[in-house]
Write a structure and sequence with these properties.
Blueprint (H helix, E strand, L loop, with lengths): L6 H6 L27 H10 L9 E7 L4 E7 L2 E7 L2 E3 L3 H4 L8 H9 L1 E3 L1 E8 L3 H4 L7 E3 L6 E3 L10 E9 H8 L3 H16 L2 H4 L1 E8 L10 E3 L10 H4 L5 E3 L11 H21 L1
Parallel strand pairs: 4-12
Antiparallel strand pairs: 1-2, 2-3, 5-11, 6-9, 6-10, 7-8, 8-9
Length: about 280
């Protein structure tokens, strides 16, 4: 393979960008996965507080602060319903909250509109064999690319099972939007044709099925994460960091670890702590 490169040559190659896919302060190098999938975390939270207290399939259509309480109007099962409470914590994505009628003032509305939804997409490629393990000895990890695929993820579980699913692309911004314009079959064809350049023909011939997803096209989310210019503590977002009357706000988008569950928990703890202190002081 030639002489061992010098340290200068190693750094000049840009290898540091590929130690992890973000290489940022909030990016853990190795993370555990909940058995059964990431949705086991909200399922556990639901069980802890009691499923009877959770309403699903409820699309909020109006938020009204009455001064002595909050009224939330929503649609569920084709019917319009209303719930009244002493306080409300709005944890919907800001781009969704911005479209819901409310009486919380122009400061809240302006702050919500200043936060920009961001794009991301993924495709899962199911293969009839785990050829990346058998042929290439690849077990987990990410292949970084300079193509519109951005990242290709290898499964980190089920080693040497009969089948396996690879993430054929995890891309953002313009690349994600370009794939979003395609139908599922065209997304698959484009992703596979790119992947063949890296892995060879088995990337195509061993394919069994695929499933692709674009977050901007997801109802009730319409974003993968959000851009908060200036950071969540910027004065422009003061009306979101403080309660609008009896309505508080929380979400990963109001933290410095946007797009991560850690950010959502941090923001939720902050909102609940403020609410607790207010009630106890009353």
């Amino acid at each position: 393979l030639g002489d061992v490169p010098s340290a200068s040559e190693v750094f000049a190659s840009g290898v540091g960008r590929y130690f992890s896919f973000e290489f940022g302060f909030d990016q853990a190098m190795l993370m555990f996965q909940p058995v059964g999938g990431m949705d086991q975390i909200p399922k556990a939270l639901t069980k802890a507080i009691g499923a009877r207290r959770v309403q699903t399939g409820a699309v909020v259509s109006k938020i009204t602060d009455k001064g002595d309480g909050v009224v939330v109007t929503y649609r569920q099962g084709g019917r319009t319903k209303v719930v009244e409470a002493d306080f409300c914590v709005g944890a919907l994505p800001p781009n969704i909250l911005a479209k819901i009628p409310h009486n919380l003032g122009s400061g809240v509305q302006g702050a919500l509109e200043a936060i920009t939804p961001q794009s991301a997409g993924k495709i899962g490629l199911e293969y009839k064999s785990r050829w990346w393990e058998l042929d290439h000895r690849i077990y987990g990890g990410i292949t970084e690319t300079d193509m519109d695929l951005s990242h290709i993820w290898h499964p980190s579980h089920g080693f040497h099972d009969e089948r396996g699913v690879m993430i054929g692309y995890y891309n953002y911004d313009g690349d994600a939007d370009a794939y979003a314009k395609l139908g599922p079959a065209a997304r698959e064809a484009r992703a596979v044709s790119q992947g063949v350049k890296i892995y060879g023909e088995k990337y195509r011939t061993e394919l069994a099925s695929s499933f692709s997803h674009h977050w901007r096209q997801t109802p009730h989310l319409e974003a993968a994460w959000h851009d908060t210019p200036g950071g969540p503590d910027d004065p422009r977002y003061k009306s979101l960091n403080e309660p609008g009357g009896r309505v508080y706000f929380a979400g990963d988008w109001l933290s410095y670890t946007d797009a991560w569950q850690h950010g959502a928990f941090t923001s939720a703890r902050r909102a609940v702590s403020k609410l607790h202190a207010r009630v106890m002081a009353a």
